[in-house]
Design a protein that fits this description.
alpha+beta, ten-stranded mixed β-sheet, globular
Length: about 180
């Protein structure tokens, strides 16, 4: 039996957040940084619990992106992970479907950065084909290492977008995308 949950950071106990951080460190094989954690904890958390605890997790945070010249408030997906023993059983899909519902209800667009496009494409996400940038401390800068890794999820409020146009994220410490 599995139970899906969602809550904002301020509704969660420090103990639960500590457990999530340990879960993410394990799921990402110790390639989950303090900056990644900061990026993940400022919004809504969605997780799936099983008989033995946390199985799958993802978070949704608000960011500002400029897509094809249009400034948009977007739901940005962070820290999606499923414990190794439960992968390929639909648990990540369950979490991401709920995150997709939250995006559609609250934002003009969803966005995320990934190297595993096929998983998200099955859920309606599209690859951004154009060049990536960040509005950094020294102005707008190219982020060519992120080209091809950004995906968007359109909502009923999404404007017309040129997926070959520029996409620009707001600045943050660590991985900007």
């Amino acid at each position: 039996m599995f139970a899906l949950h969602a809550a904002s950071t301020d509704a969660l106990s420090p103990s639960f957040l500590h457990d999530v951080r340990i879960f993410l460190d394990t799921a990402f094989e110790d390639d989950f940084t303090d900056e990644d954690w900061v990026h993940a904890i400022s919004g809504v958390h969605v997780w799936l619990i099983g008989a033995r605890g946390l199985i799958s997790y993802g978070s949704l945070v608000e960011r500002t992106l400029v897509c094809s010249g249009q400034t948009l408030r977007v739901g940005y997906v962070e820290a999606v992970a499923t414990v190794a023993a439960h992968r390929r059983n639909g648990h990540g899909t369950t979490v991401m479907k709920h995150i997709g519902e939250l995006i559609r209800a609250r934002y003009a667009l969803g966005a995320l950065s990934t190297g595993t496009h096929a998983f998200y494409e099955t859920l309606g996400w599209e690859r951004w084909r154009g060049p990536t940038f960040v509005d950094g401390p020294r102005g707008r800068e190219r982020t060519p290492g992120d080209d091809g890794d950004i995906m968007i999820l359109r909502t009923s409020r999404s404007p017309g977008l040129d997926l070959d146009g520029d996409i620009v994220c707001d600045w943050r410490l660590g991985d900007v995308w």
